[in-house]
Amino acid sequence: MRIAVIPARGGSKRIPRKNIRMFSGKPMIAWSIKAAIESQCFDEIIVSTDDDEIAETARKYGAVVPFMRPKELADDYASTVQVVKHALEWYESTGNKVDQLCCIYATAPFVDAKDISAGLELLIQEDADYAISITSFPFPIQRALTVSDSNRLNMFQPEHALTRSQDLEEAWHDVGQFYWGKRSAWREEKPFFTAASIGIPIPRYRAQDIDTEEDWVMAERLSAINEKG
């Protein structure tokens, strides 16, 4: 069996109630549930939450909430892998056997069903531990700067001050949309970012991590642009 797990705790602090805050006409979490359904990859789409209102919203849009997440996994210190492993163990304790599991973040309004499907295909084809949504940095990270308390600038890698941009290696980062993984990878709490993982490239215009109000405003503007096509 294949399942999706969408972590969505109620105690988000930087953007209160962000998992069910309205975004482009739907509660934020509804976009992740919608993409999971449309991908047709899953036997079950589970939302792991400690919050009754989030649970009710998740069920309304087509997910199941078969358990409430324990308090020790609903604070600021619980990792994604721990939360997903808990859901996996709960699900298998009911007599089901999971082969692959995909964690989809609740604040991923641009996640696409086709990317989720592509992730599953590559996970199996490449025999990877994880298949993770990634996108490229828009600026060479080798020219990143530090800013001192007195507003003075320094390069992280001053040896590249005069290197041509086209000669610098392209760098990528986690998009924060979805993480396909083998059962064994989740059970053993293996790290995401190793040579055992494979990346699913996402275009930058569909990549937006939403942790602050500024991120939210940027995501709304991206959404408006994407809707216009």
From TrEMBL:
The name this protein goes by in its record: NeuA
InterPro entries per record: CMP-NeuNAc_synthase, Cytidylyl_trans, Nucleotide-diphossugar_trans, PseF
Molecular function GO terms recorded: N-acylneuraminate cytidylyltransferase activity
Source superkingdom: Bacteria
PANTHER family, per database record: HAD SUPERFAMILY MEMBERS CMAS AND KDSC (PTHR21485), N-ACYLNEURAMINATE CYTIDYLYLTRANSFERASE-RELATED (PTHR21485:SF6)
